[in-house]
């Protein structure tokens, strides 16, 4: 699917398949790369969900948030289960007094923890309905939660707000804990990844490569928060451009010390080097857990961007570079090397 989207994109259709086709010192090229990553999971994790008589809902897990946005994802899951806005959900994480959390990583955290959170939320919701049913003169099976309201399937009463219903609980709190259960079909080994294309402009007089546009089409299973996923892939693409064109660790051969250990001497991509980035997600449902999340993975832009830029450089110049970073000095050295004739190729 990712390849099909790339093939039908305006950027790919604008590619000249003949290398070194442009006249003049500035040459345009477009290159493609494909990446693959693996579905890593941690079974040793869980969560607790609590519903209080004042109508507040909270989820607790010892998981840490290193920037992947797991707090938002957990709030979304409870919001969906209880029919309340995510902003009304209290998320408590990072405390070892809470149920154990998974190790953190873009390709591990969400896929590991969210099924346990969803299972705990469902169990807590059932306990909540059992607790309020007597006061409403209904059976738990007649009650449901949606849109911030408690509803009666038989029409015994008009829908009432969640908070009003919570005040009718026969206890101050109901709670449920759940652990991550194995995937439904552990024998099924799943991978995911994406296809990236990059457009570059190569100045053959100065050796500078400027990445103008990147289109990244990636699969991460079921993206629970697509905006967060797209943001992470944007960051991965920028990191990929950074190590491909700029980042160069220099070590003293006698002492093994890094001689450019600061951002004054160790160049990274800045705002001027960030291209136009377009990210498209392809949802892939594999039916392995209650949330079907798979993760993103380090391959999302970080690994594949370098290969796409390298292929785009070849498309622009007809010359291959097989070392990183592709600094102006490296580019000029490659362009000045005698190239084999087309007959030899």
Mean pLDDT: 91
| Unreliable residue stretches | none
- Total beta strand runs: 11
How many structural domains are formed by the residues? Answer: 2
Query: Which class of secondary structure composition applies to the elements?
Result: alpha+beta
Distance between the termini: 32 Å
Find the CATH superfamily of the largest domain: Aldehyde oxidase/xanthine dehydrogenase, molybdopterin binding domain
Short account of what is shown:
By secondary structure, this protein is α+β, with helices and mostly antiparallel strands. It has eight helices and eleven strands.
Detailed description of the structure:
With 345 residues, this protein is an alpha+beta fold. The chain has two domains: 2-40 and 186-335, Aldehyde Oxidoreductase, domain 4, CATH 3.30.365; 46-179, 2-Layer Sandwich (Aldehyde Oxidoreductase, domain 4), CATH 3.30.365.10. The protein is built from eight helices and eleven strands. The protein has helices at 2-7, 10-13, 70-82, 109-136, 162-166, 226-245, 299-317, 328-335, and strands at 26-38, 46-52, 57-61, 89-93, 143-146, 149-152, 160-161, 173-179, 191-203, 208-219, 276-282. The strands form three sheets. A four-stranded mixed sheet has the order 1-9-10-11. The chain has a four-stranded mixed sheet with strand order 4-3-2-8. Strands 5-6-7 form a three-stranded antiparallel sheet. Helix 3 (70-82) packs parallel to helix 4 (109-136). The protein is elongated, with a radius of gyration of 26 Å. The model has no long low-confidence stretch (mean pLDDT 91).
